[in-house]
Amino acid sequence: MPLIPRSARRSALIDDREGYNCCIPTTLDCQKIGIIMESLALIEPLRPGSSHRVLTDLATQLWAESSALNSNLQVATILGIGDLVRTMNCYYSNLIEGHRTHPIDIERALAQDFSIDPQQRELQLEAKAHIEVQQEIDRGNALGSVVSGEYLKWIHREFCTRLPPEMLVLGNAEGSRQIQIVPGEWRTGDVIVGRHIPISAPAIDSFITRFATGYRLERLSQIVGVAYRR
To answer: With a threshold of 0.85, does the pTM exceed it?
Structure first.
């Protein structure tokens, strides 16, 4: 079975201004020709087309209002808001993945107050690692450009090294064995994450390269570049 994310298992024409015009193969298509096909079209389009002016206007408005708010706040207030937003982002990003860690439990984890329940403790450790890495990013300690493989590997290494070894294990796509996660390295085997089937390990480098070239700052509009630098 082709290792194509469930959300992309249908034919769909992708029209990208850089020439990535292609048709995403269906599972049946791939079975008919007898190969595993992982097209870069699976992550396209990376950016909205030039016709989506409303998005540029919204980005401009967001940048302007953010700058105005930032200029009127005391440093202590800004730092306090930063702590609150990191906890909020941690809660919702983990909730999307089915990991429900209440903000109170997150605060307890940051104070080294962990639950005696093993499952809840793991969720707290995950949340604590999440926030600590975000703090390092906010302090400017990350390596590489924000859209580079180096940056992603740095995040992965910093996050994983904050977790106990037993949390660094995933089942392979067939469910026949366990794969050890190596902090800061791309995986070398195929895995399943919840109900999602990611791309195969050999395809990771090409997808990361496309991600990096598609989002590099000089290719983005001026206003998006300014908003990023903020």
So the answer is: no
